[in-house]
Amino acid sequence: MNWLSISVRQQRATSTHAKGSESRIPLKRPSPHHCRYPGIRPSLKRGHMTTSPLIPPSTIKHPRQSSNNPSTTMATASTTETPNLVRVNHHDAKTFAAALLTASGVSAKNAEITASGLVQADLRGVESHGILRLPSYLSRVRSGVLDPAAEPELKQITPVVAQIDARNGFGFPAAHLGMDTAIKMAGVYGIGMVSVKHSNHFGMSAWIVKQAVDADMMSLVFTNSSPALPVWGSKEKMMGVSPIACGAPGGKGEGSKPFILDMAPSVAARGKIYKALRRGEKIPTDWALDGEGKQTDDPAKALEGVMLPMGGPKGSALAIMMDVFSGVLSGSAFAGGVTGPYDMSKPGDVGHFFVAIKPDLFMSLDEFRERMDILYQKAVNSEKMHGVDRIYFPGEIEQLNEEQRLKDGIPYAKAEIDALNAEAEKLGLGKIRLIE
């Protein structure tokens, strides 16, 4: 069965459900407060993940095989037991991450920015883009394909347009400078746009969106990534599973949350497959195809094949859009040219594109916030579908995770902590501090 026919089958399943069937696609979105493991939200995030796991796929055993059950292909819960978890205070996680980075040649300022972006991902429940990325980042540093000491260079093009050359440094400082520059231009002229070239992975897009939201700005955050997704009708990996992210300040009403969208153009984010691989878990069979173009619940085989775009040609077109704005426009790699996480032959050459917009251009900020509050209240209090306990605004689940983890600590699998401590040992540093 090819991926075109799979997409058609999924569309038919959706149509059938709309007519009254409830057996094919489970619609219930479990509450983040009713998970099997406290502090860990269900697999509800629509966010992006694009690159490397802690350990190269070739060194990890495939999960145990079982027969596929078509009636459960849309489920996100794993059929295997989650490993033992330990918890880390967010301050300790950030201190540990910054220490690894500075010991690897990153300046104190850039290490602080990078560590902050990584820990924000962990707090929001996007662990695949948190400090677990550090072993793969530092492997690239040791291989000479990522320059830890590089400082991004800013060039002003017009009063509202700028470009940054990341000079093959960490993507986090370049992204932070890019959005900060866009915010400053928007503060004066209403809008600011920044293109970034010759960069690397900048982690979870939502932390950059939050940077703008905290400055009372609307934003667009685009990036491209290494090939993982075929264009519609092809079986060749060409487009990246590149995140589409944007945001706006929220209302002032009780319970209102900012609008923060951060999603991949694929059925599932690639980082979820890497996470399942690390933890020995299976994946739903509609996420990806193996190297032979067949459905698989084995994450290792999925990584040898292709991710499936959400909505068929729609997801494919969104992935191409990200490549146009981030790769073609910036002068970075594009059309499958971004280097993958385990290709140590050359730099990543990732491109980004940031836009900040002042929301009080057409009305006062207070009126804008009042209207956002109305939108939020109408959205989350709208009539629920059968089986849905609660309706969430984009980014709200992640914010609830953050509030909980700021109090209880960030959960990690013990094997993941071991990998981080192994990096610390290489650099002559102490182990990460755990919550007893």
Can you offer a commentary on this structure?
Belongs to the LDH2/MDH2 oxidoreductase family. Helix 2 packs antiparallel against helix 3. The model is unreliable at 1-81 (pLDDT under 50). A hairpin with a 2-residue loop joins strand 2 and strand 3 (161-165). The protein is built from 12 helices and 13 strands. The protein is of the alpha+beta class and 436 residues long.
End-to-end distance: 50 Å
Q: Which parts are unreliable, with pLDDT below 50 for 5 consecutive residues or more?
A: 1-81
* Rough outline: globular
Strand content: 5-15%
Offer a few descriptive terms.
Mal/L-sulf/L-lact_DH-like_NADP; disordered N terminus; seven-stranded mixed sheet; oxidoreductase activity; Malate/L-lactate_DH-like; Hypothetical Oxidoreductase Yiak, Chain: A, domain 1; 436 residues; oxidoreductase; Malate/L-lactate dehydrogenase; globular; alpha+beta; two-stranded antiparallel ribbon
